[in-house]
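Researcher: Here's my situation. A collaborator sent me these components and asked whether they could plausibly form a single complex. I don't have experimental data yet, so a predicted model of the whole assembly would be a useful starting point for our discussion.
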Amino acid sequence: MTKIEIVTNLYEKLGFSKRECANIVDTLFEIVKKTLSNGENVKISGFGNFIVKEKKARRGRNPQTGQEIQIAKRRVLNFRLSQVLKDEINSTKGK
Amino acid sequence: MNKMDIINRLAEGIKLNQKVAKTAVDTILDTIKMAIVKGERVEIRGFGSFTLRKYKAYTGRNPKSGAVVHVEPKKLPYFKVGKELKDMIWKG
């Protein structure tokens, strides 16, 4: 599934034009993206939490050459699944 | 930031009435959720993708008591961060 199907669903639900629906979907993801890139977490109940984690700088090694390299301090995104969604997925048939 | 904040910002951002914004956010999330539950891969360009990963049953241990526990097979969605978002977060 891609954004197109989400837009189509929204179009059927809201009755707005496809263009307006696409704008809504794009804006939603832009809001979430901007928030996360500011280092703020996004929590969606019943779905999951998007958590920004600070990673310290560390020494790494290029596994191919064995050469030591410095890995800079960075931020990564983690997704923590909601317990509700977890149960929903695992209660459906065909465990 | 939680769902309510997203709804408020969306309503402000594109001049939507609060109720409509809520319906929109709920519909979008439900669509994604349903696809994940069905085991469908969901890909949102620039944001990331969700895939359902299957895990086999295994015998685990309660780390506190040391008791042996049997873990049933399960399915868990995996979120892979999209390139654009990854770079945005990295740079901060």
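Model: Some features of this prediction you could bring to your collaborator: Chain A touches chain B through 46 residues (CB under 8 Å). Chain A has a mean pLDDT of 91.
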